[in-house]
Each structure stands twice: as structure tokens, then as C-alpha cells.
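Dear support,

I submitted the protein below through the web form. The confirmation email said the job was done, but the results page showed an empty box. After a refresh the structure appeared. I'm attaching both so you can tell me whether what I see now is the final result or a partial one.
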Amino acid sequence: MEYSFPHYLLSKQSVDDRALNQTVFDSLKANLPSAPIRIIEVGAGIGTMLTRLVRWELLAKANYILVDEMSENIESAKEWIPLWAVEAGLSVETIEQDQLRVFDQTRDVLIRFECADVFDFIKKNSTPAYLLIAHAFLDLLPMPESMPKLLTLTKNLAWLTINFDGVTSLEPSIDSALDEQIERLYHATMDARPTGGDSRAGRHLFSHLQMAGAQVLAAGASDWVVHSVNRKYPADEAYFLHFILHFFEESLAGHAELNTAAFANWIKERRAQIERGELVYIAHQMDFLAKV
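What the results page shows now:
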């Protein structure tokens, strides 16, 4: 199987759609003005959150800055968003190389693409947004020191979604002791990343936000729950599951505490479970809406 990160981001759209916490989303809707707003999304990938907010009729008029450090993601976003917009019945106008407009009679969103490290972008950004979005991103950053820097990007609200919070479950069990060991070691790799990261980021965001002077307006679980129906996974979620196992492989290959042959067999059997439509994957995460 060929592993493409932009393809993974596409494949998890339906997973995220189900996972995002409705109470937190409703609070976001209630706190947004009807006037055109400026939005900055960091770690924005290929723009799936932008298209989701248009689909869910949250965005009518907006200036949306899409920030990601991976050039592959930005280039994919520039190609995919116009295709999505046309399929959704929106008109598309390319303003310049890094700006795009999608619009119809009721919606008008100006999009700017920024290929940049988030902290480099923070240094050069001169105009805070009304809303900051960080989706499936904060658990990759060093905390708590990153939070005050991130919050300089907004003068009002921060919607912080899909923050991993310490539980990974793969069913059915292959070997309970091995399953537990792999989960524990996988989480430990998140905590040991040289660039930062936290396998319990979700629960820790309460204190990180408070220390940075922000008020939590709403919070709730946003768990990924992926299972088949009649042995078929919805949408492209089989690819999503294969990519999750790819994360396990990349993170734990050659780990001193793992038996190499046992881990290889575990991965092989988990992939076979996907092909048979048997694998159930659950990851516990949390969403926040905060006021700066």
C-alpha cells in the first residue's frame, strides 16, 4: 500500500465529522458574529476543516488563513479545495498564487495559503484573527510554553479540536498482554518526541489555557470511533485505519522493548482484520472552545 499523508487527511474527514463535539461546536456557533470574520487555522493540512465549516454552514463571509509547514499539504490544498468547491456548487476565483476565493450568492470565503512553521508564522503575523482553529495539532506541540504564543493569533476565540487524550483501543484483542504493551509504548513515543507532544494533551489543556489567561467556554470528548457495517467501512475509512497502523509501525519499529517478530505478526493480523471488516478502532480525544 502507498502511504500518502494528504490521502490520510482526506480519508479521516468522515471520522472527524462524527467525532467533533456537538456541544462545543454549538458554543462556537453561538459566539461567532454574523459579520465577516478573519480566521487563522494552524496545522491546517489540506483544508478539510475549512470545507467542513462551509458544508456545515458555519462560514458565510470570511477571510481564512490556512497555515501548514508541509509543502505537500499546501500544494494538495491548492488543488483539492477548488475541486471540492466546484462539486459543492461554488464558484472559484484564483486571485494570485497563494490566494483563492470560493463563493456563491450567500457565501464568500477568501483563502490564503501559508506554507510555514507555526512559530515562524506567529512571529510575522501582524493581524490577530477573530477565531483561531487548531485541529488534531496541539498534541504535537511542546506545552505549556506554546499556548501563549498560539493565542497571540486571536483576539477573541480559539477552537481547539481532536486533542488526543491517552486512550487507544483496537478490537478484537490479539494478545491482551501484547496489545497493552504496544499501546503503552506507542503513547510513550508521543511523550518523547523531540519536537514536543503529549499523549494526554486533552485533559492538560484545561490548565494550559488557564495559565495562558484564556477562559474555557466549552469542552467535551471528540472520540474517533471507526467500525464496519456489514463488514464494510464507511467512505475511505479502511485507508484511514491502514494509515493508523502505519503510524504504529513508524513509531515502534525496532523498539528495544518489543519482540520484532511478535510486533510484525501483530501488525499483519491487524491489517487482516481491516480487510475482513473486523477491526474496531477507538481513540479518546477532547475539543475546546476558549475565549482569550
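Response: this is the final, complete result; the empty box was a page-load delay. DSSP finds eleven helices and ten strands in the chain.
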